[in-house]
């Protein structure tokens, strides 16, 4: 697991301030982040692996400033997008999982072994030679997870990973996120997904308004929605 720190982090897009004075230390195994649309929660997590650079303040992962060491940080932090089509880059399922490893300087034998093991772990072995774009929505999200996890990052950040899925596939992805050995940080509107996490953070209007055990934080969030 990683130690992720936000120190006086602010973010503006033009005249619009998205985050302001965020201070956080993320060390727990399972962390949920919730908030209304436009609250800044997705911007916050995208800073963890350098998809967004803060306008002010610093974000560090295990002491590495993400803005200056994004490449090194991305070896530690894998990112799962809401829409898996945004991160499927190769024609077939097998090629998409192997693609990550080809950039790591591994031998062809090791790439083949790790790819096969990861496809088996996610129940995608029988689809290995199929075109990735022909998978179902749930299978595509499994493929996106497989392509990230094959690189063995210490931390997984998932930005609303169940939003586009039907109930059965959303439950499957949720259960999988609960069982991963990696540190998992999940942004979600599906509050049941984080009810048993170690910590839940509530973002409202670019600031942290609740942070603690799920029961307390989710109660605070539901109160905001009233």
Automatic annotation (TrEMBL):
What are its GO cellular component terms? ATP-binding cassette (ABC) transporter complex
InterPro entries in the record: AAA+_ATPase, ABC_transporter-like_ATP-bd, ABC_transporter-like_CS, ABC_transpr_CbiO/EcfA_su, ECF_ABC_transporter_ATP-bd, P-loop_NTPase
Q: Is Cytoplasm one of the keywords?
A: no
Domain ABC transporter, chain residue ranges per copy: 4-226
Report the Gene3D superfamilies cross-referenced here.
Answer: P-loop containing nucleotide triphosphate hydrolases (3.40.50.300)
Protein keywords: ATP-binding, Nucleotide-binding, Transport
Protein family according to the UniProt entry: Belongs to the ABC transporter superfamily.
Q: What is this protein's name?
A: ABC transporter ATP-binding protein
């Amino acid at each position: 697991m990683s130690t992720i720190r936000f120190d006086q982090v602010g973010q503006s897009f033009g005249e619009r301030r998205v985050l302001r004075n965020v201070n956080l230390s993320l060390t727990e195994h399972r962390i949920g982040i919730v908030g209304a649309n436009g609250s800044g929660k997705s911007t916050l997590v995208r800073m963890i692996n350098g998809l967004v650079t803060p306008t002010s303040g610093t974000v560090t992962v295990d002491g590495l400033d993400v803005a200056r060491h994004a490449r090194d940080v991305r070896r530690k932090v894998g990112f799962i997008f809401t829409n898996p089509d945004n991160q499927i880059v190769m024609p077939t399922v097998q090629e998409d999982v192997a693609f990550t490893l080809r950039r790591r300087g591994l031998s062809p034998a090791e790439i083949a072994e790790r790819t096969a093991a990861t496809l088996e772990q996610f129940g995608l072995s029988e689809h290995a030679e199929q075109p990735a774009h022909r998978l179902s929505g749930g299978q595509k999200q499994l493929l996106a997870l497989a392509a990230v996890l094959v690189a063995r990052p210490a931390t997984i950040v998932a930005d609303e990973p169940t939003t586009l899925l039907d109930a059965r596939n959303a439950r499957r992805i949720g259960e999988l996120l609960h069982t991963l050995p990696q540190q998992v940080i999940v942004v979600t509107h599906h509050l049941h997904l984080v009810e048993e996490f170690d910590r839940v953070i509530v973002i409202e209007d670019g600031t942290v308004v609740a942070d603690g055990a799920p029961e307390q934080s989710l109660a605070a969030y539901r109160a905001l929605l009233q």
